[in-house]
Each structure stands twice: as structure tokens, then as C-alpha cells.
TrEMBL record:
Transmembrane region(s): 20-46
Organism from which the protein derives: Mustela putorius furo (European domestic ferret)
KW Transmembrane helix (keyword) present: yes
Protein name: Acyltransferase
Keyword hit for Amino-acid biosynthesis: no
Any one GO molecular-function label of the UniProt entry: diacylglycerol O-acyltransferase activity
Membrane topology qualifier: Multi-pass membrane protein
Entry-linked Pfam families: DAGAT (PF03982)
Name of the gene: MOGAT1
InterPro entries referenced in this protein's UniProt entry, alphabetically: DAGAT
Reaction(s) catalysed (UniProt annotation): a 1-acylglycerol + an acyl-CoA = a 1,2-diacylglycerol + CoA; a 3-acyl-sn-glycerol + an acyl-CoA = a 1,3-diacyl-sn-glycerol + CoA; a 1-acyl-sn-glycerol + an acyl-CoA = a 1,3-diacyl-sn-glycerol + CoA; a 1-acylglycerol + an acyl-CoA = a 1,3-diacylglycerol + CoA
Subcellular location: Endoplasmic reticulum membrane
Length: 321
């Protein structure tokens, strides 16, 4: 199978995995395979909080050959600009969300990126919506990649590990930002995202801005400007379900006109300069706001310093919402 075919299979699989997993459980119950679903459901009851306690990664799954094809398809690159101290823990603020968050997954959830070479002694945890860990079977598969919940308890668990060497990777724009993931756009939903700043202060954890150039170029979305009926429906559904439903399209497996397979555009995920954060167990709103402003300034500097390397014109700049 070619790399492009593998990528197509993987992309389609991601969209269907939760439905397939739910269908398997329903079939087992309907046909009364109690000797399969009862032990699993019993185990699930006791294992329910694992996504908030560091997860359960599997090097075997992270080393599947399909992930090498996934990385090489775009391709995905990881760029380090500053050395990090492996005796400390860090929060990586990942931008932008895009439609797939391909850069975050490819760099931090597989063994085919340059992460181990660039950041020796570190373990990265990609924090995703708690919703995905409520789906039986799929939650177990998701954890094997190194993904954990994005809840406050989960992030605190990672940052509280003694000895350092742990990185919480948080896609700060969240589902809302995916609705603005149009090619050539650089709109980040971050002005109201301050929870990560408070956690950084309470743990004394350095913040590291990360910008993934090319993330928004993988798909085209149906035009959905603010105030349009489509955007209104998408935002209402996002509030109800907790995740967004962007109407996107790209190319097919054997043709380039239309399909759900992402365009073959390079992704360069640039890890910026760490922002030292003094531990403050009970930070004031003013302290949170000050650090939040500093983070946004460092993120803008990172974007401005590297945008020309990756084909972005001089007049383009980040828009913070």
C-alpha cells in the first residue's frame, strides 16, 4: 500500500473509530456476549480515571508503520529553538488547532518524529477533550498514543510528577478555533483562555509557545464567517456537544479535486522560548493577566520570527480573539 493510501485509511479511520467502538459494544450486548462485555465494563469502572492519571501509552502502538507514513505524507517537521532543562516540567501551548491537529499528533503521539532527539529525557502528553475518553474501547486506543484528558486534574497530575522531564501539550484554541481553520488565516482563540496560565503559576511551570506552520493549509472549509447561519449552527452544536463540526474538504486518494483526504502540505511545528514562571500557589487575577499578556507577546514574536521561512508574507500577522 502506498503512503498516500495509508494516510487516507488513517484519516477516515479517525472519523469512524468512536462509532465502530460503540457499535461493537452494542452488538456484544444485543447478542448477549456477556462473558466479553461484563468483564470489560467491570474493568472500565475501575479504570475510568486513568486518562486523568497519566494515561497508558504503548510504544508498540506509537511505533506502528502507519504513523511513519502519516508523518512523511505532509511531511511533518519539529523545530527546536531553545534547549529545555529535563529536570523541569513544561507546558507547551500549541497553535493553531486546525481541523486535524496533525502537527501535535504527529510530533508528540508517535515515535517517528524528532522529539526524542531534540528533547532527550522528556515525555510529552497531548491533552485532548475528556469527551473522547468516555467512549468504551476507543478511550483505550487513544491512551496508547500518549493522549490524556485536558481536565485541570489531568494537567496537574502531569506537572506534579517529581524529577521533571514531563511536557503537557495543550491545544489552547480548542474546538472553537477549528471553525476558523481556513487556509491563509491566522486567527487564534486565546484571549479568554487563561486556565493554563493559572495552572502554570500554581505549579511554577514554564510556558512554551508552539506554532505549527501549515496546520491550517490541510483542508478547505465551507465559508462560515461570524454571524452567518452556518457559523451560528456550528457554535450552538459546539456548546451542546463540546466539540466543533467544521464542514471541510480537500482531495481524494486518486484525484485532487474533492475528498476528505488532507492536502499534502508541509507542517513545521516550531517550539519557542520557555517563559520562566515563579510558583504562586494562589495567583491573583492581576498576576494571571500579566503572565497571559507575556505569553501572547512571546507567541507573536515566535510567529513573526519564523513566518517568512515558511512562505508567509510580511504583512500577515496573528489575530488574537
Amino acid at each position: 500500500m502506498s503512503p498516500e493510501s495509508n494516510q487516507a485509511v488513517e484519516h477516515c479511520t479517525i472519523g469512524l473509530q468512536t462509532q465502530v467502538c460503540i457499535a461493537v459494544i452494542v452488538i456484544l450486548i444485543v447478542y448477549n456476549y456477556w462473558f466479553l462485555y461484563v468483564p470489560y465494563m467491570t474493568w472500565l469502572y475501575f479504570d475510568w480515571n486513568t486518562p486523568e492519571q497519566g494515561g497508558r501509552r504503548s510504544n508498540w502502538v506509537r511505533s506502528w508503520t502507519v504513523w511513519r507514513y502519516f508523518k512523511d505524507y505532509f511531511p511533518i517537521h519539529l523545530i527546536k529553538t531553545f534547549d529545555l532543562d529535563p529536570s523541569h516540567n513544561y507546558i507547551f501551548g500549541f497553535h493553531p488547532h486546525g481541523v486535524l491537529v496533525a502537527g501535535a499528533f504527529g510530533n508528540f503521539c508517535t515515535n517517528y518524529s524528532d522529539f526524542e532527539e531534540l528533547f532527550p529525557g522528556f515525555t510529552a502528553y497531548l491533552h485532548v477533550l475528556p469527551f473522547w475518553f468516555r467512549c468504551p474501547l476507543f478511550r483505550d486506543y487513544l491512551m496508547t498514543s500518549g493522549s490524556v484528558s485536558v481536565s485541570k486534574k489531568s494537567v496537574s497530575h502531569v506537572l506534579s510528577k517529581e524529577g521533571g522531564g514531563n511536557i503537557s501539550v495543550i491545544v489552547l484554541g480548542g474546538a472553537e478555533e477549528s471553525l476558523d481553520a481556513h487556509p491563509g488565516k491566522f486567527t487564534l482563540f486565546i484571549r479568554q483562555r487563561k486556565g493554563f496560565v493559572k495552572i502554570a503559576l500554581t505549579h511554577g511551570t514554564s510556558l512554551v509557545p508552539v506554532f505549527s506552520f501549515g496546520e491550517n493549509e490541510l483542508f478547505k472549509q465551507v465559508n462560515n464567517p461570524e454571524g452567518s447561519w452556518l457559523r451560528t449552527v456550528q457554535e450552538k452544536l459546539q456548546k451542546i456537544m463540546g466539540f466543533a463540526l467544521p464542514l471541510f474538504h480537500a482531495r481524494g486518494i486518486f484525484q485532487y479535486n474533492f475528498g476528505l483526504m488532507p492536502y499534502r502540505k508541509p507542517i513545521h511545528t516550531v517550539v519557542g522560548r520557555p517563559i520562566p514562571v515563579p510558583q504562586t500557589l494562589h495567583p491573583s487575577p492581576e498576576q494571571i493577566e500579566e503572565l497571559h499578556q507575556t505569553y501572547m507577546e512571546e507567541l507573536r514574536k515566535l510567529f513573526e520570527a519564523h513566518k517568512r521561512k515558511y512562505g508567509i508574507s510580511e504583512h500577515e500577522t496573528l489575530i488574537f480573539r
